[in-house]
Amino acid sequence: MDMISDAAPMIERDLAVLWHPGSQMRDYRSFPPLEVVAAEGPRLFLADGRSILDAISSWWCKSLGHRHPHIVDAIRDQLDAFEHVILANTTNVPVVRLCERVLAAANGRPAADWGADAPPGVKPGHFNKVFLADNGSTAVEVALKMALQAQAQRGQPQRQSFIALQNAYHGETTGALSVTDCPLYSTPYRSMMFDVAFLTDLPYRTGPDDPRWLDCSDEWPAIEAQLNPLADTAAAVIYEPVLQGAGGLLLYSPDLLTRLHQWARAHDIYLIADEIAAGMGRLGHILAGHMADGRWQMADGKKTVKDDSIHPPSAISHRPSSLPDFACLSKGLTGGTLPLSCVLTTDAVYDLFDADYHDRRAFLHSNTYTGNALAVAAANAALDVYASEDILGLVQQRAADLTRRLADLAPGRPYIRNVRGCGFVAALDLRQPDGSRLPNRDRTGYRVYREAVARGALLRSLGDSLYLMPPLNTPDEDLDAMAAILADSLDAVLETGTA
Ligand SMILES: Cc1ncc(COP(=O)(O)O)c(C=O)c1O
Questions:
Q1: Which whole-number Å values give the CA distances from 149 to 111, 154, 350, 360, 389, in the listed order?
Q2: Are both 34-67+393-494 and 77-389 of the same fold?
């Protein structure tokens, strides 16, 4: 390789040294990576003077937009005290406070119990313990390992396998990849992965306005028939609650969670909720699993289906039967500012690990940056903002409008199929006139993405699915602009009516 001078164009210098994530690097030769120089709210500012809208929250994590001033200040303040200290053998007030607050929020307690002025101490609730890690995949690994070890330590060592859902995505480390059903990401690494039973025939729906949103009684018998043979050997069922992200931005009926919970309880099988994409307000709740309580609002913000009264998320009371044994959070946990993840679990699980040192029952997982103080400061500040700006309430009020923005694109564009949405996620698929998939080699979704960037929005496609997953506090006019750019990009690539 020739020497590259620092006067060379950035793209040359980039391609000389940097291997970008989730990319076929050759694509960058014809469509260079965007050179970001600043970011604010839902906008990225580029070196060439343009600004573009971050319609996908930078891989779904920027729940509060870029550089929220309250979070930036909190990180700066923490930097003045200490930035990172080993979390084994030490403690500090911010990390304990974060655990107390995350537990209160995940237990569905009112914002007064987890906002900036929340009193110190633990409130009663389903989840009682927090294990910290530094990214989503690692949180999934932690939960899988905890579930396996907990089963053995409660006298069920034969429970060694995992059940997951078709189209699941749980991350890129090998345990997380094993419970992932996305061959595109996992095929080359098959020999490193363990076998998992994937449940098929899931009750996919288009969102809260779907008449069968809260009912999967038709599909359940076929799912239960797949589960029953696994009842004596499974350690845990892992699932992304309601929203399956990287597997295709699919939505399934929250009723599946209720039924899965009942089945798992009856057979002493743990439940692991991967809330990494769906939690932290993306679906309008701190945990998407709260939607399985059957007390939540339809997209018009008025009706509830199983309960006559409206229960904003802050009023959802704790219902142990519908919450899992482990819940993994990341992404929006810090408002998407710094890497942090956590696994929440119960005292019942924790007590299985509590023993004399020589009994060898400890959970000995460790990562160097566990509990990084800057990330913890960011997460505490993010919770301040969730509470003070009523982010959950805002998502619930504006969710239906986000989906409507995509539904409005469908008339006159017959290639748009399966418009769906829930909370602050809305997606559509591009299909042939007969509904079949577009040829892979055409890379239609990718071409729409390129067109959208040229028109001012980072609208990274997922195969031939296009979607909006913007920061939860994105102003309406920016949401309108994202939808308009998507429409123009579709028209440019697919020439209306001819796809
Ligand atoms: C549902 C889900 N689980 C796990 C992960 C992995 O998280 P990370 O990329 O932080 O490892 C992701 C990432 O997109 C995700 O969407």
A1: 34, 9, 11, 11, 40
A2: no
Strand partners, 427: 420, 467
Buried b (16+ CB within 10 A) or exposed e, 290-328: bbbbebbbbbeeeeeeeeeeebbbbebebbeebbbbbbb
The pLDDT-based confidence of 496 (bands split at 50, 70, 90) is: low
Nearest to 244 by CA among 184, 285, 203: 203
423-461 per-position pLDDT tens digit: 999 999 999 989 999 999 999 999 999 999 999 999 999
Going by CA atoms, what residue is nearest to atom 9 of ligand 1? 136
Rg (CA), the chain: 22
Q: Within 13 Å and on the Cβ side, how many CA atoms surround 366?
A: 7
Could you tell me which CATH class the domain 77-389 is placed in?
alpha beta
For the chain, the structural domain boundaries read 34-67+393-494, 77-389
Q: Is the pLDDT of residue 298 over 50?
A: no
Please state the atom number of ligand 1 nearest to the C-alpha of residue 140.
4
Ligand 1, atom 10, residue with closest C-alpha: 136
Residue 330 tokens read as: 């990341």
Is the CB of 275 inside a 6 Å radius of any atom of ligand 1? no
Q: CATH code for 34-67+393-494?
A: 3.90.1150.10
Question: Residues with Cβ < 8 Å from 484, sequence gap 6 or more?
Answer: none
Task: Give the residue from 451, 299, 345 showing the smallest Cα distance to 131.
Answer: 345
- Candidate from 167, 181, 331 with most ligand 1 atoms within 8 A of CB, to mutate: 331
Residues 61, 63, 68, 74: is their CA dihedral positive or negative?
Answer: negative
Contact indicator for 472, 63 with CB cutoff of 8 Å:
yes
pLDDT digits (tens, 9 = 90+) for 51-73: 999 999 999 999 999 999 999 99
Ligand 1 close to Cβ of residue 135 (< 6 A): yes
330 lines ligand 1 (CB under 6 A): yes
For 320-333, the pLDDT digits (tens) are 457 999 999 999 99
The phi, psi pair for 189, rounded to 5°, reads: -110, 15
Question: With pLDDT > 70 as the criterion, what percentage of the chain qualifies?
Answer: 92
List of residues 6+ apart from 287 with CB closer than 8 A: 106, 108, 241, 273, 275, 279, 323, 327
